[in-house]
Predict the 3D structure of the following.
Amino acid sequence: MPAQPGLMLHVAVDADGFTLTGDGVAEALAAQAAPGPRILRAGDGGYDHPKLYGALTALKAEFPGTTGFTLSAAPGLPYHHIITVMDLAQHRLTEDDYPDRASLRTATRRVGPEGAPEPLMPAVTLAVTH
């Protein structure tokens, strides 16, 4: 069976949350009953990283050839928000979704048969927006 092609995914971060776009993104997220394509901030005002992680793992399940995405941020967005998204996408964790930021923060990396952490979507390209 030929390898599944990767998804041309774009993740945008703005003051209100995350937006995931690309051909087939909305349909794939719906098929996996995953959050998105728009993920608003959590009720406490923080970015909902657990939902973003759940969306990324769902997209990886639908498009296993996907190794990364393009990331853009709204002008003036603090840099640490960009870094957090990049860190989140590096490795698969033991679970595919987490109920809250505390459980995501304490999660451990999933290890493959070779003993190395399994990658999620580590090839992140930063896009410049104006």
